[in-house]
Amino acid sequence: MHWRTREGKEAGKFNERQGKEGALGLLPVIDLRMIHRLKQRTLFIILIVAAAFAVYAPSLRNGYVWDDSALIQRDPFIRSWRLIAEGFRHFLFTNATASDFYRPIQRLTYTWDYAWSGFQPELYHFTSILIHALAAVFLFLFMERLLTRLGQSDATRWAGVISVIWAIHPLWTSAVCYISGRADPLAAMFGFCGLWLALRLTRTATSLAALMFLLAILSKESGAIFLALCIVLMLLLRQPREVLIRWVVLCVLVAGACLAMRLSAEHLTPPSSPPLSVWTRPIIALRAFAEYAGLFVAPVRLHMERDVLPFGRGDLGMTIAIARNREFQTLLGAILVAGFAVWMRWARRRDEAVFAGLVCFLVAYLPVCGLFSLNASVAEHWIYVPGAFLLLAALLSAARLPVSRPAGMILLGLWALYLGGRTYLRNPDWHDQRTFLEKTIADGGDSARMYINLGDLELTEGHTALAIADFQKAMTLTPDQPFALISLGSAYLHAKQYELARQEFMKALKVPITEADAYQALAVLEYQENRTDRLDLLEKAARLAPEDWDIQKRLILHLGEIGQVDHAIVLLRSIITAEPWRGDTWRVLGDFWAHVRQWDSAERAYRRAIALDVHDDETPKKLAAMEDERTQ
Of 132, 151, 123, 146, whose CA–CA distance to 48 is shortest? Predict the structure, then answer.
């Protein structure tokens, strides 16, 4: 209990009276007010967890979608506990494409899931829901302590209502239903826990809070915002100078530690998008503010990718209509920003808790407001943390409106029911890759990336004509998109339209990011069309992408097919020297050693492969078969 608060002083006087009235002051003192608050807090925690699991229960039946294949099914670092330390030395998307995402704690949670369930998606979804529920619980504990410090009456009740609504809001479905979106709940769980501990103001709690902030940043880069939030809260609560200095030093140390780990990790920088004009940024920020505001109040059409810039859709009338609507959105955004400024001015004079919520919202929202270059202009899950502070300010402000208490409670209850129902109904949108892609496109997220992925799915399932149509649509939205070129060429190749396929591959050769894939695709084309073995093209692709295991593997397996086993073994050993952590590499090496009857070397390779994958069922069978052949 903090004795500086009014409630603390009253509870202290009550304890003193009880002590005097007890038998010689030796009977234990029972603070009835504290017991009531403890019961209320426990009930809210149960309610928060139950609400989170209730609205997200359907996602337990979902599978893998979008980036799940890269972060879970293709990531070698989650396959064994032995690779945890190695996972901290690499960015995400190791076996996929280059990225700027250094999130080793997110990867560590996948290691836990894989250890227990392999590639069965149920546990992955359960873990995501659990992390989200815990984030809401720590939000509740933090909000309760913050509101108590700010002198807000019924702090526990307000914190509970805010946390329940935040837990069930459908804007976070892309962070909870989507396994790869787990970084947001994970960073929030550690971040809110850190803020809760920081407000205790003891040295032990401060040290633990710093550790939580470190874990938040290692879960997602935006977790660094909790460092700024901590400093801002200390200023708002008018903490002594020595407390502020201590926290500034701790924040610098935490940020430095994260930066050192990030800079020392292996990193392939992805190609940068063409920069937007500095004058375009404020327009994007205004549109994003309007977009988020509408989604926050009435999340009707939700989809993974959102863009507030008008692009051509192949139809002049539609392009003009989209551009006109975006201009209206810019005007609406300007009006909302002005209204927000008036709201802040009112809160500064009238309500300290509302003002604190608005300030914290601004601090958390600024990095994703649209003024800075990110991999999109708007994303629903980006306001996962800012949304909590916006809820705080909005609900406390709404309580001051001239509306009767019963009417206000009914309106709030109806809104909460709508939010929970919308979240529940949104879960199946992530059921599988086809459902996710088609639903996203239908709801307005018809970007080039969505059509490329839908086309890849159609091609995998043998629907070549549909795949070609999807890739052509992607090219209409983003002309000469490099991955669309490769995919469209592959579809033409599948349809045996060799000349059209060659044209697309030749275009892809001119783009550095797809050059290696294009050489590999041309090798396949030459073999299918002319039965010509273009080993030179496969070797050129391998030289251009030494870090791409899929390209290296195709070359190595082809060398084995044409009898150059010794050459394949040399290449494999060079790859293993650079990347000894990939179980698949050891498995292939074991196959080649077994082929040339080098039994001891094959056994060592197979056993190493088994050690690097706790759910490797294939290699033990190969090892047993090799032992049988060896003894014959």
Answer: 132
| CB-neighbour burial class of residue 512 (10 A; exposed 0-12, middle 13-18, buried 19+) | exposed
Phi-psi region of 158 (alpha: psi -120 to 50; beta: other; left: phi over 0): alpha
pLDDT at 14: 38
Q: Crossing angle, helix 352-365 and helix 316-350, to 10 degrees?
A: 140
Structure tokens at 183: 């970084």
Question: How do the domains of the chain map onto residue ranges?
Answer: 1-30, 31-268+283-426, 447-540, 546-632
CATH number of 447-540: 1.25.40.10
Residue that is written with structure tokens 């192949």 in the block: 314
**Same fold for the pair 447-540 and 546-632:** yes
Amino acid found at 443: D
User: 226 forms bridges with which residues in the sheet?
Assistant: none
Calculate Rg over the CA atoms of the chain: 28
| 102: Cα within 13 Å, side-chain hemisphere | 22
Q: E-strand spans in 81-149? A: none
Q: What is the mean pLDDT of residues 230-243?
A: 91
Give the residue carrying structure tokens 């063409």: 274
List, for residues 89-146, the tens digit of each pLDDT value.
988 888 767 778 899 999 999 999 999 988 999 999 999 999 999 999 999 999 999 9
State pTM to two decimals.
Answer: 0.88
Do residues 467 and 456 touch, judged by C-beta distance below 8 A?
Answer: yes
The DSSP code for 547 is T
Torsion sign (Cα): 44, 50, 55, 60: positive
pLDDT > 70: what percent of the chain? 91
Question: What CATH superfamily is the domain 546-632?
Answer: Tetratricopeptide repeat domain (1.25.40.10)
